[in-house]
Amino acid sequence: ISRGVGEMIHVGKKIGAESSAFLGTAGIGDLVATATSKRSRKFTFGYRLGKGETLEEINRTTSELAEGVRTLVITNYIATHFNLAVPITRMLYRVVYEGYPIGRAIEFLMRYPYDVDVDFILKAKSD
Question: Virtual CA dihedral for 72, 49, 9, 116, nearest 10 degrees?
Fold first, then answer.
């Protein structure tokens, strides 16, 4: 969750948002609630994806797709446009839309160097 918040702030700042927009109830609060509640569409989608189902399989059996699935396309576009280091976004996009093996994505993310995740925050504070 903490690395996800870092990516949200990083992308948001590139399109003019303030960091504080992601740190309150609407940001972290929503993220924690949806990431931990079995009643959340986002949680359910991620759980099913983690079990090996594809976007198409989940979509066929779900009445309403989690909004984050559509947001992922936009976020990936912004990250690509600005050449941002957002490994969670990139891996999620690849898994959901390109059929990248989820096990390999998890391996990549677990080995991704943490110091890269906070560089943009440290730089922003010194500017």
Answer: -110
Rounded distance, CA 7 to CA 79, Å?
10
Q: Is the pLDDT assigned to residue 123 strictly greater than 60? A: no
- Token code pair at residue 98: 């390109």
Backbone conformation region of residue 89, classed left if phi is above 0, alpha if psi is from -120 to 50, else beta: alpha
Residue 22, token pair as written in the block? 């992601």
Structural domains in the chain plus CATH codes: 2-126 (1.10.1040.10)
pTM of the model: 0.82
Cβ(36)–Cβ(28) below 8 Å = no
